[in-house]
Design brief:
The chain is built from 11 helices and 13 strands. By secondary structure, it is an alpha/beta fold. A 5-stranded mixed sheet has the order 10-9-11-8-12, sandwiched between helices. A 3-stranded parallel sheet has the order 5-1-6. The chain has a 3-stranded antiparallel sheet with strand order 2-3-4.
Length: 284
């Protein structure tokens, strides 16, 4: 037990500092909406003039965005971060990251506090009503993580009926639990590491987590395992960069760069590189 908790502390040092809300309120008047659209249409010109693009993220979602010690300094790293740094270089602007809880990321984008949002965000139909999205750059698998002692107990989705199932608040995983495990009791927490602590302490019975994140935790904690219970995936689960509604020019510029990175395998390389980095840092 001590070994498991020490391992979790190692991971928490990476993850608890902040990857992917289900929706944002858009109760603005029509005139306000038109003003926002007008501002968004001119967004690229403002970013280009300032020379900085401000990115909202939640750095508790390794391997996509997380904190790690690099050359003795705490830094935000991850596949999304490498991707955005490359995009910023192509655009000719400096990338500035604003770290926050995941359920505040899209709200901050809508309120104009950041220019774009990159945090393992799924481009759902509901979100597309409020935001522009880039092309999808990564299609994740969703997995169920359980206490290793319960792997034979939770082998199907039906076996999780009336059980406590955790998900990150405001994430696509929260929606998946509600849709695919309607008979379970959902437990929504702000950060993924908190879910794993609850799971290790048997305060919850399972947690729905993106595959790369799930595998990283399981690799570092002998008392956790991936259950055989299979969840369905959809196109709406895929990750994309979120932008203000109407920010057409910036969306087009980002899409051009992203498509090249997808085609040449750069995105996959970033995910693998940062999966290894997360596991390496967690084991220290």
């Amino acid at each position: 037990m001590k070994k498991g908790l020490l391992s979790l502390v190692g991971i928490a040092s990476i993850f608890i500092l902040g990857a992917c809300g289900s929706s944002s309120k858009s109760g603005t008047s029509s005139s306000s909406g038109e003003s926002k659209t007008t501002d968004a249409a001119d967004q690229w010109s403002k970013i280009e003039k300032a020379g900085i693009i401000k990115v909202g993220t939640s750095a508790d979602f390794a391997p996509f965005e997380f904190h790690a010690m690099v050359n003795g300094k705490d830094q935000i790293v991850g596949a999304d971060i490498d991707m955005m740094n490359a995009i910023g270089k192509e655009l000719g602007v400096k990338v500035e990251y604003v770290d926050m809880d995941f359920n505040a990321v899209l709200a901050s984008l809508e309120q104009g506090q950041v220019d774009i949002a990159v945090s393992g965000i799924s481009a759902t139909d509901k979100r597309k009503k409020t935001f522009n999205f880039s092309v999808n750059y990564f299609s994740p698998e969703q997995l169920v993580v359980v206490n290793k002692a319960n792997t034979n107990k939770y082998t199907t989705l039906d076996s999780l009926a009336n059980k406590k199932v955790g998900a990150q608040k405001g994430s696509i995983q929260e929606s998946i639990v509600k849709d695919q495990l309607p008979d379970s009791q959902i437990v929504s927490l702000a950060k993924v590491p908190n879910l794993m602590v609850e799971l290790k302490q048997n305060s919850i019975d399972a947690a729905v987590v993106e595959s790369a994140v799930a595998k990283s935790y399981v690799a570092q904690n002998d008392d956790l395992a991936i259950a055989d219970a299979k969840l369905e995936t959809s196109e709406g689960d895929a990750y994309a960069i979120a932008l203000p509604k109407g920010s057409t020019k910036l969306t087009e510029k980002i899409d051009t760069i992203l498509k090249k990175m997808i085609e040449d395998g750069t995105i996959k390389e970033y995910v693998q590189k940062n999966t290894d980095l997360a596991n390496e840092n967690a084991s220290k």
